[in-house]
Amino acid sequence: MSSTLPVALAQQTMQSSKVAEVNTGSLTPVAETSAANTLLHELQLGEQLNNSVVEKRRADFSLMLAMLAEDVREQSQFLLPKTAAASEIKHTEASLRKQFNLPAKAPLALSSLDEIKQFNQAQLITEHDLAAIQLTNILNPKPLAFRDNKQHISTEVLTNTSLFTQLKYKQAQQMMLCDDQVSAQTISSEINKPLNQVLPFNANAWLDSVQQSLVKAPLLN
Asked: Rounded to two decimals, what is the model's pTM?
């Protein structure tokens, strides 16, 4: 083991003690001495660990590691400078599209019937100019569907249903057109009601007719 290692460590700890005394004048002498004279992390050793590896001084390397603090929280990699936490920036879809110069989001459905003209691409297809169609759709995204209504039923499907189903569907559409604020539960309860009106029924008269038929049955036999 090199005889200069203990001397160098002693000098380094003394220098650390002087620096700590200047920087922390408010500390008590006991705290200054205990903190400055103890090897807590490898930065206090400077380049001595690297030199011992290069010079193949394994004993010095083991001694310096043994003199370090056992608590890993005192090691230098856990004492890095802490920067102030940056305030969280909330990005919206509109702000991100503006930042990256992206086009507007493709709408789900047509907002007006005039937008159907955007789909008149027959001339480009006959000219086999598919690149122009793709470029136009990227620069100005077209709606993904004609309607954004999950309750819509196409005419082809509706005509294949029974007349009773068509009447029920027409009834629901009329209710929605008359009052836009009506809830789905109200519409469902109204649709589940039978279309036929309640038939008149006199229970007392029916019971009287049954009783008379029972009384007259033996006489007829």
From this structure: 0.32
